[in-house]
Amino acid sequence: MTIRRGRGVAAINYPTGMNLGGDPTQALVHSTPTGNFMVTLSSVDLGQGMKQIMAQICAETIGVPTDRVVVDTADTDTGPHCMGTFASRGTHRAGNAVIQAAREARQVMLEVAAEELEVNASDLETDGQGNILVKGAPQKSISIFDVALSAHFKRGRSISGRGMFLIPRSYPEKETGAMKPSTCYAHACTVAEVEVDDETGEVTVLTVKNVFEIGRALNPKMVEQQLVGGSWMGISHALYETTEPYYPNRDHGGTDFNQYLMPGPGDLAETEIIVLERPSADGPYGAKGPGEMCANPQIPAVANAVFDAVGVRIDTLPITPERILRALKAQAN
Amino acid sequence: MELRKSYFADVRKDDLHEIGQGRPRLDSPGHVTGKTAFFADRNFPGMLHLKMVRSPHHHARIRSIDTSEAEKHPGVVKVLTARDVPHNVYTILILIQIGPEDETVLADGKVRWKGEAVVAVLAETERAAKEAAAKVKVDYEVLPAVFDMEEALKPGAPIVNEYHGQNYYLYDSGECRKVRFGDVEAGFAGADHVLEQSYQSSPIEHAPTETTGCVVMPEGNDRFTCYTNTQAMFFTLDNTSIILQMPGSKLHFVGGTVGGGFGGKVDVIVEPIAILGAKLTGRPVSFIYSREEEMQISSPRAAEKVVIKDGVMKDGRIIARKVTGYTDAGAYSRHSPYGAQKGAGHYPGPYTIPNVWIDTYCVYTNRTPSSAMRGFGVTIGDFALEVQMDKLARLIGMDPLEFRFINAYRDGDMKAHRQPTEGAALIECMQEASRAANWPVAEKYMAMSSYKKEA
Amino acid sequence: MAKVPVQFTLNGSEKAEFVDSGTTLLNALRDKIGDTSPKGGCQQGTCGACSVIVDGELRLSCLTLAETCNGAAITTTSGLAEGGVLHPLQRAFLDTFATQCGFCTPGMIMAAKVLLDHTPNPSREDVVEALSGNICRCTGYEPIIQAVLTAARANSQSAA
Amino acid sequence: MALALQTFPTVRDANAALKVAGTRYLGGGTLVVRAANEGDVAVSGLVRSTDPALSAVEIADGRVRIGASVTMAAIARHAELGALAKAARAVGGPAVRNMATVGGNLFAPAPYGDFAVALLALDAMVSTDDGELPVETFLGGRDNSRAIVTSVSFALPKDDGFRFLKVSRIKPKGVSVLSIAVVLEQAGNGTISSARIALGCMADRPVRARAAEKALLGKTLDPNGIAAALGAAGEGTSPITDPIASAWYRAEVLPVHLGRLLLS
Fold first, then answer.
1. What is the mean pLDDT of residues A33-51?
2. C·D CB contacts under 8 A
3. Domain limits, chain A
């Protein structure tokens, strides 16, 4: 038995959004009588954390702590339109809509505060803790709690805002293909290190070192969740996954989690994640969509590492032990 | 995970309060206590269970359907066939004017893939629905099927889907989406080396732990509340409105808490037929995919074939790249015409290449319709591109990482689809990877910048 | 249809229902008793989302018939928190960001609880083995492994 | 019709109830409840027996008798069955092992049934109310077997006499690419005096590798000594093709893994 070691690299970019279809999302924000904020959407949380991120974006924009924000999604009777959660668009599109709605609400909030404090709204700022202060004179302040009460019961104002973010549809030019398929791009570079058993074709991914550039890590802990899980899925795609193992032959498609193969908790590569942030011009606080991109670079990096280890190219996914063994035998002949 | 704040510090202000903070997730307490309400956690008295009778053949004409025994089966409340569906032929992307309508909610006269829905059975229990489904008699005339994309594109191949008339999607640009930039043939002629390679994948399942499904409640006011795990609320609502010829005001969709999606829950598949069942019976209806259905019936990531031909110079510059991509849509379009075209906008990858030719095809075969998945239109292309990059580097005897620096796109570079590059960061990712992986590259590459002004 | 009685304790309280003979424990818990914390991810015994603890042993409730559990003591994730205070495992899953979509989480916590009940100071290998029947598609498992190890450390510290 | 379960205190009464068409025996549930859940409407009734003998493990005079309802978890933690623990732990994850039974494993189609591979190498006897059969005979006729398996019995192997390997693509739990169980006896000079090798996934049910067994006799456990056995390992097998691996792959790596197991 010989265990051979190799490493491979891959570098990629990934588009945010589905510009080729037109790409709108809308949001509504309003305050409750005691100065909590409700974000109403019809965007879907698939587990990536849409609700939490929209709360943080709204909180940042209004100027309150995140726990003062409640996200109500996704109910078509109350939530305004969203195209959906796909194409790495959720945070980018819905986030921009929430920012716009929250800005409008913030403006009303500052106007009410200005009336209460008898200053100009433009002279006010928030402290992020739930208070509105006069710039340069922070002793002169009012709580957002009191501002909301005033708006509701005294001034008759609605502290609310509407947000809409639309990327107009890009139609590819027929002959040249000139088009604007995306708004901004996330980036990644992955180096994978593998061991290949040259008698069985079995691959062990030892390490993956992933560098991702994602615009802005809005919530670094949640970014980490996605990137770690995505890196696992990329390795899974590279080595395991197919619903048609003998494609294009349709036979022997897996029907359960025993037959549909994915790495188990005993198959995990040592995974390193490094994040760079080059804020995008059009993203919410500079964010891009990293959710899909993070599962892509491991696939070619592993493929290239397998070649580096045993000198055979597997250009068909997944890179199964059988494909490697067949290639090794062909190489030996 | 580490945030490397030293990169791009000059264009980023880190002065935010809530953004950039690793706040705890507000949904997690519900997850760890089992209190989070997924759609299937709603159980209504009198709820019916919907089970689908599916085609055992890859391609067949339906001579007749006999549901009489199934209808008599104890516990069965309703059996639905194509004629019960008001607008049975649909396509999801018609909402953004990408037609033609090419797919049946319930098969009408023909099945085009093994597993296609033919008859829906609604019964008091899952068991009764399954037993009754087994009693539906469908008389099929089996037709020749085609599974291989190249075979499907040959003249004389069996036509998979008559609504298209040929086994590829017809774009306004013709049989494929095209990108033309520079003169690719001149590029090949002037190249030191030309390398043409072919890459292939097979379908991949999203495999969310929660299967696709919905629970429908007919409300007292002639409206229907649909608890769903769709990834796109209004996409589903609006398509349902078309399929059922029902005003959107009658439909109320509640979702947004989904047990994993990864693109697998963007098709409008379970909701229209479940709502129709609720309408025709006046009862709540549950239609939840079994794991087998999730694995083999729900849309997978398309199989793709990618052929890349590159012209490269000894000094490492790629001067011409021609990509021909084939997306195996299966029997129906769903989102695949979009994915193939998204691929055209993605090639030739994050590299600046002066001469580019791209053709991407969306091909129909007699297999489970494919659709979107995490990395839609890009994932397999990136596999092909980046293995090709490795081969090119080795072909000219260059370090694979250094070879990428030479070709990496930077701000202002014109892309093949004629958009100037903005916000590039590939070089910095590679520089950091070089450090993290202890994969040294020449100092001149470590000094490069995506801003296109050398440090 | 023949109804059969099922009677067991669920998270310490007595439950008695009549169900169709052949009803799985998963369906009895979810549809009859109203505990939806066990999830039906496959009904094949291959995903672990339906895992519950029956008389101290981890079981797949989708493959267990409810009527075979008469007299048993059943624990589900919904019963772990006491008086609104989260179980150390639940706390650890929050602190290590080990949940994403959350669908696998109740089953994972059940598998982890049985492990820690028998092996208070598990090795990483013990944790990996204990979770090996449970599928997660979001996290890549590492955060869940870390959550279980974190909970074990918290337990041993509070016991010390 | 609902899937009615009938419970009987004796195996005899359960056997009688099993004669009704569509009735299946409920062991741990991992096979038959799954089949019903997946829509196998041919399963219309379930029968089980609560006879305590089915859950007993008896060890006497170097022989062990394991009741058919004994679970994989119970075997894996049994103090005196340490030699078999590896094979028992090869089945499923922890929850499956708490449910899956010895009796049920005899009926599990490839790629399942790893414990049955061990029983085949151990030359176990399978007991029903109709009598005892060698496990190999039983496995050959299992598709038509209607009588409830009550127990399996075999001579306990010496500590180092039993070797077991399950090759899986997923760790630590995944179904088999193949599994191999080997029972060896060595003479004083180290040469092999007796060998039984059983293979999983090399047919639709566990099979013996008789040619390889024969080729080991009189040989020593070193690369030269086992070479002929490895060459003959696949004789008479017809490996399955499934989503895990093709027949070609299984046949190719069988000698590799058998060699590693023998030299381990």
1. 96
2. 88
3. 3-16+183-332, 19-167
